[in-house]
Write a structure and sequence with these properties.
Strand content of chain B: under 5%
Radius of gyration of chain A: 20 Å
Largest sheet of chain B: none
Structural class of chain B: mainly alpha
Order of helices and strands of chain B: HHHHHHH
Order of helices and strands of chain A: HHHHHHHHH
Distance between the termini of chain A: 16 Å
Oligomer: heterodimer
Largest interface: A-B, 22 and 19 residues
Number of helices of chain B: 7
Number of domains of chain A: 1
Radius of gyration of chain B: 19 Å
Number of strands of chain B: 0
Number of strands of chain A: 0
Structural class of chain A: mainly alpha
CATH topology of chain B: Four Helix Bundle (Hemerythrin (Met), subunit A)
CATH architecture of chain B: Up-down Bundle
Shape of chain A: elongated
Strand content of chain A: under 5%
Distance between the termini of chain B: 21 Å
CATH class of chain B: Mainly Alpha
Number of helices of chain A: 9
Chain lengths: ~240, ~210
């Protein structure tokens, strides 16, 4: 595979962040609304600037699958670490694929909330809850993804590691951070509620930086693979 | 805190005593410090949010504080501090090649860790029976969330200790295994350190 194509796959990670967060801003989801808002206030929220909010949701949806090419490059690297038997690479891919649901499911619920501003506010509030709760609570696949990367890096026994071992520990730590939103359903106020410092802001900040760090680490591996396989920059093997 | 300084001195054989001539090195693997410092930063954020909320509502926090059983909290503090000491002694033995001695000490440390989980279960059961739960007040939201997240760390630490104990069954260990053993010890000390701060925040601050 050419180095240029590999770089494109790696940059999908940063691209995801650059699409997702502006999408959240456009949709009015950043900063998140407090869970204590009444049905009328929620309906009012979705009835104002509805066009811009819908466009924001479309942008979020458009970016939602960018982690797919990004995580397949991670998986290809993990296979180099694991050898011929590569369950962790598969766990990582499946974790990444399921994490896409954490964006798609809330976007669909928010889209439905914004779709009919004239309806009963109670229904809009229910759809709004159905958007916020999974957006903040959907942690297990992302945690599995990070744990798989962490264990693959730390489990490597060879002499030519493609990633530093700190990246393994970093992924284990991030796996733990991602779980912070998991109990959002228990709270309507405070730091663990869906708009809270720990359940939302902490996870959002580390979620964003994780993609940047992993993109950077993927970019550092590209020259390695060319050396390993004896390919030139266009992916051709010299005769 | 003499126990902790003792632990540190024992965990850093190159840093004290007659062997100060040895080249300075970071204990364990370099990478574990990314995890430890990252995790401690997040807990520091936890503690800061707790103190901020407590500052806004000191009376309610003080009232809820009295529902906690300080004796159980103190028991747990003693259990974790002792287990940290046993781990430090055990790691020193394993690094010196004395696996038999390391085995006993690590099993004792694991026993203290299990004791911590049992005491925590008893304490939580009492609180649940008394009608306290995650949603019952701001103080108890913090209490159950922070001690719950810490408990998850204790369980991970117990799994790491099991791995170390398993390693001591062999008569010889490689340099990689000895480093792994020290790395596991560092994680357990972190779990202990975080509990000491949680203990101070929830049980001691009136």
């Amino acid at each position: 595979m050419s180095a240029g194509l590999q770089k494109s796959l790696a940059w999908c990670g940063v691209a995801f962040v650059l699409v997702l967060f502006p999408g959240l801003l456009m949709a009015g989801l950043l900063p998140p609304m407090p869970p204590t808002r009444t049905a009328e206030q929620v309906a009012q929220f979705w009835a104002t600037n509805t066009g811009l909010k819908r466009c924001g949701l479309v942008v979020m949806l458009a970016g939602s699958a960018l982690p797919v090419p990004f995580s397949t490059l991670i998986a290809a690297r993990m296979k180099q670490l694991e050898g011929r038997f590569t369950p962790l690479a598969y766990a990582q891919i499946i974790g990444a694929a399921l994490s896409v649901v954490a964006i798609v499911l809330p976007v669909c619920a928010f889209a439905a909330a914004s779709y009919r501003p004239e309806r009963d506010p109670q229904i809009t509030q229910a759809l709004n809850d159905l958007g916020w709760l999974p957006l903040v609570m959907f942690w297990p696949p992302a945690t599995v993804q990070c744990l798989a990367i962490g264990f693959a890096v730390l489990g490597y026994r060879g002499t030519a590691p493609i990633w530093p071992r700190w990246l393994g520990y970093y992924n284990l730590w991030i796996a733990f951070i991602f779980a912070a939103g998991g109990l959002a359903v228990l709270f309507k106020t405070g730091v663990f509620a869906w708009n809270g410092l720990l359940a939302f802001w902490l996870v959002a900040a580390f979620f964003g930086t994780w993609y940047v760090v992993m993109t950077w680490q993927l970019l550092t591996t590209i020259s390695h693979q060319l050396i390993d396989l004896g390919e030139d920059a266009d992916g051709n093997r010299p005769r | 805190m003499t126990a902790r300084s003792q632990v540190t001195a024992l965990a850093l054989p190159g840093g004290a005593g007659p062997r100060t001539q040895a080249p300075r090195r970071v204990p364990g693997e370099d990478g574990i410090w990314v995890f430890v410092l990252g995790d401690m930063t997040v807990f520091a954020l936890f503690f800061a949010t707790f103190m901020y909320s407590r500052g806004k509502n000191p009376h309610a926090f003080s009232q809820d504080h009295h529902s906690l059983d300080v004796a159980l909290g103190t028991t747990n503090t003693i259990l974790l501090l002792s287990s940290s000491l046993f781990v430090a002694l055990g790691v020193t033995r394993i690094r010196a090649g004395n696996h038999r001695g390391g085995f006993g000490l690590c099993v004792t440390a694991l026993g203290c860790g299990v004791g911590f989980v049992v005491v925590k279960t008893v304490e939580w059961s009492h609180l649940f029976l008394a009608g306290k739960s995650v949603g019952s007040s701001e103080y108890f939201s913090y209490y159950f969330m922070f001690t719950g997240i810490h408990l998850a760390h204790v369980l991970v630490g117990a799994a790491v200790l099991c791995r170390l104990i398993w390693m001591t069954r062999q008569s010889e260990s490689s340099e990689r295994q000895r480093t792994l053993c020290e790395t596991g010890g560092i994680f357990w000390h972190m779990v202990d350190l975080l509990w000491v701060v949680l203990f101070a925040l929830f049980y001691v601050l009136g």
